[in-house]
């Protein structure tokens, strides 16, 4: 078979979401703690998730942050009405 290889996809993409940035890409869970420590070094971290996403990812993210300092998990009910600073 001849021809050029398929184009490689960009590994990550950063999206400006107004007051914060969102990083999108494959395999980011493995890099989560190192990326957080790079941009926000701290002695304590908080993982905030909702009741739909938390069961899939929260424990792995908390475990990855724990060696960097204390980590707490906060689970809020799913739904846009619960995504407030209050």
3D architecture notes:
Helix content is 28%, strand content 28%. It has 86 residues and is of the alpha+beta class. The protein has a single domain (13-82), classed as Rossmann fold. Helix 1 (28-39) crosses helix 2 (54-65). The N and C termini lie far apart (59 Å).
Summed up:
The protein has one domain: 3-Layer(aba) Sandwich (Rossmann fold), CATH 3.40.50.1970.
How would you summarize the topology of this molecule?
Layout: E1 12-16, E2 21-25, H1 28-39, E3 44-50, H2 54-65, E4 70-76
Parallel strand pairs: 3-4
Antiparallel strand pairs: 1-2
Proportion of residues in helical segments: 25-40%
Q: Gyration radius, to the nearest Å?
A: 17 Å
Main beta-sheet strand count, sense and barrel state: 2 strands, antiparallel
Classify the fold: give the CATH topology: Rossmann fold
Strand order of the largest sheet: 1-2
Percent of residues in beta strands: 25-35%
Q: Order of helices and strands, N to C?
A: EEHEHE
Task: Supply the CATH architecture.
Answer: 3-Layer(aba) Sandwich
Count of spatially separate domains: 1
Average pLDDT metric: 85
Total of helices: 2
Number of strands: 4
Backbone structural class: alpha+beta
Name the overall outline.
globular
**Highest CATH level, the class:** Alpha Beta
Low-confidence segments, ≥5 residues, pLDDT <50?
none
Cα(first) to Cα(last) distance is 59 Å
Task: Give the tags.
86 residues; alpha+beta; Rossmann fold; two-stranded antiparallel ribbon; two-stranded parallel sheet; 28% helix; globular
């Amino acid at each position: 078979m001849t021809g050029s290889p398929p184009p490689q996809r960009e590994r990550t993409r950063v999206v400006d979401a107004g007051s914060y940035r969102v990083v999108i890409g494959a395999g980011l869970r493995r890099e989560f703690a190192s990326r957080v420590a790079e941009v926000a070094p701290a002695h304590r971290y908080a993982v905030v998730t909702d009741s739909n996403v938390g069961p899939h990812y929260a424990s792995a993210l908390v475990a990855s942050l724990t060696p960097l300092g204390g980590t707490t998990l906060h689970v809020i009910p799913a739904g846009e009405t619960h995504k407030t600073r209050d």
